[in-house]
Amino acid sequence: KSTAAQVDDLKAKLASQEVELKQKNEDADKLIHIVGEETEKVSKEKEIADDEEKKVAQINKEVSIKARDCEADLAKAEPALKAAAAALDTLNKTNLTELKSFGQPPPIVSEVTAAVMVLMCNPAKIPKDRSWKAAKIMMGKVDQFLNDLITFDKENIHDNNLKAVEPYLANKDFDADFVRGKSAAAAGLCSWAVNIVSFYRVFCDVEPKRKALAAANQQLKEAQDKLAKIKKKIKQLDDNLAELTSKFESATAAKLKCQQEAESTAQTISLANRLVGGLASEKVRWGDTVGSLREQEKMLPGDVLLTA
After folding, report:
1. Do 21 and 255 meet the contact criterion of CB atoms below 8 Å apart?
2. pLDDT tens digit string along 228-245?
């Protein structure tokens, strides 16, 4: 091919490269716009997550304080609960059977069994008959009676039962050490009644705090769940952004490569044009030289003859 034809081919190639470069520029511009929007989304979600993390941290701090407060108050009830349990450990089938065998027990023993009776009865039916005879009926099945004491719902004592037992507990002789001189089993029942009521009173003081703690824990859980959802969303956005960024980087690299190729082609065309321009002037000079030589050729035979 002639140089001019080669230059025309290069110009066609450059035109194609410029079309491709324009498309790649548009693709890259679209991607950078999308990347910008996604980056803004991630930033906003991270701001929300930061706020939620602060809320969670604050709620967690409050929960910790409430939990310590509850634990400290419940610790005050622990001795009474242990004492009540220890009192039950002193009771067994033998000494309870012995207690039941009393024909007419000392008055304080009757008061102990009466106190146990009003604590364990149906709050809607506080018995008026709290005699020794009624107490023996209560203790009739010793194994069942012991089990009822062990499984007694110490966290839910009705006000009616508390009001009925208070006069017995107020008696200065209602003391396990004093009662022990009358009956070991009665002493155990006395200690159980005193300590189970003591535990319940502390438990009631703590209950509002326990409820507040439970509510705070629920609030903490909801806040943590919300934060977890936000973090999950952020991860999805981050993954999407990483994918878009990778595509943008690839598009940018392809655009730069195409741009470099187009620049290289344009430079080659420029050099070729310079070459063609140079050759055009030389063609004129060479044409003049050829014409002159042809004229000289015509004169050559005569010049030779003259020379001879």
Report:
1. yes
2. 888 888 888 888 888 888
Structure tokens at 79: 């001795």
Task: Read off the pLDDT band of 31 (50, 70, 90).
Answer: confident
The rounded distance, in Å, linking the Cα atoms of 89 and 98 is 16
* pLDDT digit string, tens, across residues 53-67: 888 888 888 888 878
> Do you know the residue count of the chain?
308
Note whether 111 and 200 are within 8 A (CB). no
Separation in Å, CA 261 to CA 143, 266, 273: 100, 9, 18
Q: Which of 95, 187, 196 is nearest to 150 (CA)?
A: 196
Residue 191, exposed/middle/buried by CB under 10 A (0-12, 13-18, 19+)?
Answer: buried
**CA nearest to 113, candidates 160, 179, 177, 159:** 179
CA distances from 114 to 25, 84, 126 (A): 96, 17, 11
How far apart (Å, rounded) are the C-alpha atoms in residues 296 and 308? 18
* C-alpha distance from residue 73 to each of 63, 66, 67, 208 (Å): 15, 11, 10, 11
CA distances from 267 to 10, 18, 256, 262, 278 (A): 10, 14, 16, 9, 17
